[in-house]
Amino acid sequence: MQRVTLTIDDALLEALDAHAARHGYANRSEALRDALRRALLAPEAPEAPAGAEGAARCYATLSYVYDHEKRELARRLTQVQHGHHDLAVASMHVHLDHDTCLEVAVLRGPAGALSRLADSVVTQRGVRHGHLHMLPAGETPEPAPPHPHPHLHPHEG
After folding, report:
1. What is the pLDDT of residues 47-81, one digit of tens each?
2. Where are the alpha helices (DSSP H) in 45-124?
């Protein structure tokens, strides 16, 4: 076992202590080790078909809270999202308070690409509480019978 030093803000430390007390952990280290195990060992994406690692098509929501006053963060987040415009279906932006925003993006695409996009968003300095929730897209549906209204298909050229 190794000892490491971790710097976290006061509010996060209070939350860790409350979590440890609520669940009966003997100390912070046990609570943090358990949280890390859950985060690192949790399945990240639906299973891809054999030979197509990360290619399973999924729907996903990416939610994250960030400090919009953090230098250049909003611009960096916009650049990341524009760089993956082919995965975006819709997004919602909510002002939680004077400095804090919540964004929820609905995504569609290969599981590996969705995971990479989520990682590039939630690892930005100033982003907190990021979470990617993926759902398998399922089988390719049968084509719909002809009907009177058009559908936009951004992935078709």
Report:
1. 544 444 456 788 999 999 998 888 888 888 888 88
2. 73-82, 111-122
Q: Which of 63, 70, 39, 66 is closest to 133 using CA atoms?
A: 63
Dist. CA 102–CA 11, nearest whole Å: 18
The DSSP call for residue 60 is: E
What tokens appear for 3 in the block?
């000892």
For 10-155, where are the E strands, in sequence order? Answer: 57-67, 88-95, 100-110, 127-136
> Which of the residues in the chain have pLDDT under 70?
41-55, 138-144, 151-157
Count CB neighbours of 103 within 10 A: 19
Q: How far apart are CA 150 and CA 135, in angstroms?
A: 26
- 73 in helix, strand or coil? helix
Give pTM, 2 decimals.
Answer: 0.61
Helices (H) and strands (E) in the chain, counts: 4, 4
